[in-house]
């Protein structure tokens, strides 16, 4: 199965001034495109795998692929999947999800406490990776960071909200100031 680069539902400049247009354009047309192409390169060797990339990631441990290909799928399939959600999470057309807000307040004590935990996971992620809000197998909300392009689907968790803290996501505008990028990123999240 060959996948196209997932479309952005908004312009590259739609998240200005918090996320700059140049970063968005490079991130989408170069980085996300490269993850998509490299994932396709592996998947085309296994035409029998007709599940979606998300489904394949969720069954990663039992995936019938050559070990080297599996590693490529984990990294680049992960990059494909993670960025797809990341763009959706930042869509300016998103509406506040009151149910999610209520669930977060119940799970973490308050919405502010949730945001502090998520921010801490993002700031504290050593090297390249992501911060996540997920639902675990028990249906509980959890916050944590992952390295590289590791997807929460690998643990059987359903991702809800993600933040890319690879330097390519912020370096042009924020250089080494990851905390400032994260603080401004919250301003483009409309769902909570
Ligand atoms: Mn990225």
Q: What is the structure about, briefly put?
A:
The protein is mainly alpha-helical and 192 residues long.
Tell me what the structure shows:
The protein is mainly alpha-helical. The chain has helices spanning 21-43, 53-58, 67-89, 98-108, 111-124, 171-174, 178-185; strands at residues 129-135, 141-147, 158-164. The longest helix has 23 residues, at 21-43. It is globular. The mean pLDDT is 98. The protein binds manganese (III) ion. The site of manganese (III) ion has 7 residues, from α1.
Considering the chains and any ligands shown, give keywords for the structure:
single chain, 192 residues, mainly alpha, Helix Hairpins, 2 domains
- DSSP helix fraction: 40-55%
The fraction of residues in strands falls at 5-15%
* Oligomeric state of this protein: single chain
Write down the secondary-structure element order: HHHHHEEEHH
Based on the structure given, which CATH architecture of the largest domain is correct?
A: 3-Layer(bab) Sandwich
Rounded to the nearest angstrom, the distance between the terminal CA atoms is: 35 Å
**Rounded radius of gyration (Å):** 17 Å
Largest sheet entry: 3 strands, antiparallel
Number of domains: 2
Arrangement of strands in the largest sheet:
2-1-3
